[in-house]
Please model this.
Amino acid sequence: MFQSELLKEKYQVQALLSKESTSVHEYLLNAHRTAEEVAKLHGFRLNYVELPNLGIQPTSASLRSAEAADA
Model:
């Protein structure tokens, strides 16, 4: 399989983060820290948008299934 240098680097970072983490939460914290370090190294900032917490929303497929079950 063809892999670019960028993809090789991505997979190496993912493997390293997985080894360092004991949970998904810890993996995400490590990934965030690494992203912040890369941004600082290259002179840019990461900006995040705040999204409302709407909970789990039904998808159109699940709505269709519910409607079919009611019919």
In short: The chain has a mean pLDDT of 84. Residues 1-48 form one domain.
